Each structure stands twice: as structure tokens, then as C-alpha cells.
Amino acid sequence: MGGKTTWKIWGLSAAMTVETAHLLKPAKAIVDSVLAEVELASSRFRPDSEVMQLARTGANNTSISPTLALLIDGALKAARDSDGDVDPLLGGELANLGYDRDFARLPAITAKGVSIIQGPLRPILWPLIQLNGTKLTLPAGTALDLGATAKAMAADLAAARVAEELDTAALVSLGGDIATAGNAKEPWQVLVRDTDADPWQQVSLHSGFAMATSSTRKRRWSHRGLAMHHILDPAFGLPAHRVHSSITVAESTCLQANTYTTAGIVRGAKALQWLESMNLPARLVGLDGTVQGTSRWPAPARKPGSVSENG
Q: How far apart, in Å, are the Cα atoms of 290 and each of 11, 194, 240, 280, 311?
């Protein structure tokens, strides 16, 4: 029987399960090491992180750590795969919207204001990022935000390192970003739900696959009397228009899954058709709780006398 542990990190709920129970403690140490490396490289809330140092000095053929180079390479892949809907240069915009500190310290929403969803078009500059090995050049005046992709990559890296170093199947979950590695004897059972009040579904996740959920409901705060959420539309640098409360996608890596969930939130009403066209298993929950799925998403299990929650 496997071993499981849960904890809090980056203001998120984290969990890890290993198939070999007695390896839980060394596995947790490996995960902690990976997360510490990722945080030191990419946090926007640590003044000593590499991302914050670059925000102060800029980057012009600047040497960076292999960890940050790997994270930026993943963020650029996400930008390409989403046609720019996942933009790694939104650090300045997030800070201007008040998201300039750890989420737990942000002001709670106290008014019924709605997020600004339109404004002047911002220049799309991420294609100008130059990454050559560990040498980085950023467009002048820009700031990195690797929050979404770095978290997903951290889950991928942590699960893979546990499986490789300890020879056990592992699942790592970081705030809805779930990665697996190793050869599990049975599929992992995953509960898909954004908040306790939302419709839920249990699905089987086969070893070597990943799942991510992007939400417009959890990371919200108040800024100048308006309700904000953390997924920005890169076209405007403002919170994406809320059509879905959450989108979940299963893919071969957590980075890929998170790319499509984030881009789906940005695409709003076009998300379902787009995810279907990509032949992705995806589950979309509307603001009213209505659940839709692509053709590859598993139908909810039926119990005698029950009604499918997807309706």
C-alpha cells in the first residue's frame, strides 16, 4: 500500500503519493529540493530570486542558472503551443494590478465590482525573448512571470526525480497541477473538483500522464474597487473575461496540460471548440456550475438511480 503526505506551499495545497510506502520520507525530501530550486529561480515574491533580480537589472545576454533556463524554455514552449495565450512577460502587468506579493497578503474582494476586461492592446513581445543555453536576453522594460508554467513544471520535475532516484511510482500535486512518473501497478485515482461546492468527478490517471486545472475562482483579489483574478488576457494585460470557473485538461506532461487550461480560460466561449479540435480530454465548468466535456473526457460514472452530473 502506498504512502501519502500533504502540505502547504506557495499558498497552495500540495500532495504527494508514492507507491512504495517506506520511501515516502526520502521522496518528500526530493520534492522539497525541487520546489526550493524552482522558487529561488522563478518567484516574483522573493527579492533574492533570479526573476526579481532580472526585473531590477534587465537581461542582455545575461547568464542565468540552468534551472531558470529550463523554466523559461518551458514557458516559451507554452507560448508557442497556445499561440501566445500563455505569455511569460506579464510580470509587470500583474504587479500593476496589485498582484505584487504573496497571494495570502492580497486584499480580499469586498465589493461587487467586475474585472476590467478591455483596454488598449499591449505589445506582444515574448517572441523577442532570446534564450541560448543559459544566456538570456529580454525585451527592454519587460518582466517575467512564470507562475503558471513553473508550477506545472515543478510537478513534472518532482515526480520524475522521485521515480528516477527511488525507483517507485509517484504522483505530485501542486494546487491542481498533477504529474505522475514511474510504472504504477494501477491507475491513480484523481478527484476533479475546483472548490467544495463544485460538481466533482473521480477519474483514472494512468502513470506517465498529467492533469492540470486552471481556475478563475480561487486566486482573486480586490484592486481599486475591482475584482481581479490571476489569469490575464495577454492582448490587454488584464484579467481574462470570466466564462468558466475552471478548466481541466489531461496531457502527457503537466506543463502541456496547464498550457491548454490557461489558454482555455483566455479563449472563453471558444475554449470547448478549441480543446475539441486539439483532441484533448478536457472538462469545463461554467460560472453557473454547468459541466461540459470534450469527446475524450470520460463520462461520469453512473450509480443505480443517479443522474449524471454532466447532464
A: 28, 13, 19, 19, 8
